[in-house]
Write a structure and sequence with these properties.
Radius of gyration of chain A: 25 Å
CATH topology of the largest domain in chain A: Rossmann fold
Strand order of the largest sheet of chain A: 2-1-3-4-5-11
Structural class of chain A: alpha/beta
Pfam families (chains A, B): LacI (PF00356), Peripla_BP_3 (PF13377)
Distance between the termini of chain A: 63 Å
CATH superfamily of the largest domain in chain A: Response regulator
Keywords (chains A, B): DNA-binding, Transcription, Transcription regulation
Number of domains of chain A: 3
Number of helices of chain A: 12
Helix content of chain A: 40-55%
CATH class of the largest domain in chain A: Alpha Beta
InterPro entries (chains A, B): HTH_LacI, LacI/GalR-like_sensor, Lambda_DNA-bd_dom_sf, Peripla_BP_I
Protein name (chains A, B): LacI family transcriptional regulator
CATH architecture of the largest domain in chain A: 3-Layer(aba) Sandwich
Oligomer: homodimer
Organism (chains A, B): Pullulanibacillus pueri
Order of helices and strands of chain A: HHHHEHEHEHEEHEHEHEHEEHEE
Number of strands of chain A: 12
Strand content of chain A: 15-25%
Largest sheet of chain A: 6 strands, parallel
DNA sequence: AATAACTTTGAAAACGATTTCACTAATGGT
DNA sequence: ACCATTAGTGAAATCGTTTTCAAAGTTATT
């Protein structure tokens, strides 16, 4: 492996001079610069980023914490983040917490060990009091989901509005008994979809029965289960606000199998607006989340924090959601 | 930030002794070990992995090259890899080449700069002659796709068989005019699906017309386009072997819209067996790829290479494919 | 002509760990 | 009682960079 020393030896100059050329410092004579560059070329020299990181304490890897990559919402999010990171010479490390507190902490620990320079939390299981201790080792920002009392930069979506406009739409279509599905922690901001739904219902004088609230709604399989749970009820809902397009898809698959008429007997509203939403039959009405924009905003903020162009300060950047009406409602 | 020096000072021992405790070396008295551990705890000391990497030359980050993460096949693949990597204390860096040669090289260059210890190529655009130069900087293995003449460990699937059994199935269902879709490079092993299809057709005395071969079939949008291209033909195919479930989905979406009877008028065979394949209507017959197993095998091999437990040698580990019959054929 | 202000350079000190080496102390086998 | 081995320890070298510092050379300013 060739080092800066080899380049120095070949040219006859010092390591310092070579380093100055590499880093484009001023105060290097044109002749030396030329010769150094030529020697680097000749030797196929490339700086060792590990040594550089040790000396400069600048770390250009960003950890992105998500529940799992096979969830399309998150793979899309990481996709958009990685694209921009790479453009800027930054690296993205995938950290799948599988929604486990302990795994989340394990990854945060990589901040301590300097394996990553900063962390973007796109899901969060631990309380802010626990997470905040890690800030000492690098910037932490939240993207999409965050726990209460978070004092850190936050990029998120207006979940309350999502719950509100979705429910309002179901009501306008004539549905009155509207179920709610939620996934994961009840304690993060995602929960505001629920308050949004409640507000919409209250404004129209409709009730939300306890038995119409379904938890642990993560994926298609959960959607299938929830379909049967709904159908088993004495007082069945005639509309359902789901926590993701996948849950909606699971419900719709079972509805078709059991000849439940959609949307007449059961209107199903998705969340996310994933590509499949418009491809399946019936296509899924859903709340569109601007995933790409959110990822872009988060990674750009992180990059400027790592470059030291900005100080992390508590701020909430909220991106808009909108409704996409298709066949399932 | 606390360093090993701080721990040494607090305990009164040397850095060497502290290092021995950290790395569980023998030849440290029980008493000192205890005291060092206690001091580490007290100071909240965590070793700096950058410094460690510089000295030991052991790099525990693995780059995974894929076209894009939002393709479910690849997000699933990276998912399975990351899970096992994390268990072993390794990190996974996502590298989205977007199927561009130049981006692939950019990422491979991170091997030179020591930003990653090894590379798993799950897609490959460049020729082996170009890629092989990078082996000097760390192990490179191929997973799923590889260029001709590759002399490196390869984990892959029996693509030829995939093409063969898929086509055989379509023929058995009574279809005789079977189109083929392919994505990406014509020069990697993925292309063997085509030879598999040809073999099956030849065995049954069927022809494959030039106009039935569709290229650039990556996603749903391409599927839609291909549907119309097929329907525009004088001599329409009555079955199509697609390059992925997503392409199949695109074709099926347009078929429904245009009242083309599936599978009678047009049988559609997917590839991958993604979760959506069984959820949509009609559900998609497809060739199941054991993505998880493949990812596991690749990452485990890479980890043992990086640990120095094995030498990289040219070998091909081929995992089996099988057919899943549903409604679209 | 003297002084100030830049340019240009290399030696050496970081960065924070691991590892080699030399040394001493303790133990075991004869 | 001797030698050989094993345990236990710390000083110093090392990994490959960047950066500080001092010094020397050059140009500009008075």
């Amino acid at each position: 492996m060739t080092t800066i020393e080899d380049v120095a030896k070949l040219t006859g100059y010092s390591r310092a001079t070579v380093s100055r050329v590499i880093n484009n410092y001023p105060y290097v004579s044109e002749e030396k610069r030329r010769k150094v560059l030529q020697a680097m070329e000749q030797l196929g020299y490339v700086p060792n980023s590990i040594a550089r990181q040790l000396r400069t304490r600048i770390n250009e890897t960003i950890g992105v914490l998500i529940p799992r990559l096979s969830n399309p919402f998150f793979s899309k999010l990481v996709d958009s983040m990685e694209s921009i990171a790479a453009e800027n010479g930054f690296q993205v490390i995938v950290c799948q917490t599988r929604s486990e507190k302990s795994r989340e902490l394990l990854y945060l620990n990589w901040l301590k060990t300097r394996q990553m320079g900063g962390v973007i939390m796109a899901s969060s299981e631990n309380d802010w009091d626990v997470i905040k201790e890690y800030r000492a080792f690098g910037p932490i920002i939240f993207c999409n989901e965050y726990p209460p009392h978070t004092e850190a930069p936050i990029i998120c979506l207006d979940q309350h509005k999502g719950g509100y406009i979705g429910t309002k739409h179901l009501i306008e279509r004539g549905h009155t008994k509207i179920a709610h599905c939620y996934a994961g922690s009840q304690f993060t901001n995602i929960r505001e979809r629920f308050t949004g739904q409640k507000q919409a219902l209250e404004e129209c004088g409709l009730e939300l029965r306890e038995e119409w609230i379904f938890k642990d709604a993560y994926d298609t399989q959960d959607g299938r289960r929830i379909y049967y749970e709904m159908m088993a009820l004495e007082n069945r809902p005639d509309g359902v606000f789901t926590s993701s397009d996948e849950v909606a898809l699971g419900i719709l698959a079972e509805a078709r199998k059991n000849h439940t008429k959609v949307p007449e007997e059961l209107a199903v509203l998705g969340f996310d607006d994933q590509p499949i939403a418009e491809l399946v039959y019936p296509s899924i009405s859903t709340v569109h989340q601007p995933v790409e924009k959110m990822g872009k905003a988060a990674i750009e903020l992180m990059i400027s924090l790592l470059k030291g162009e900005r100080e992390p300060r508590q701020q909430v950047i909220e991106l808009p959601l909108h409704l996409v009406i298709r066949e399932s409602t």
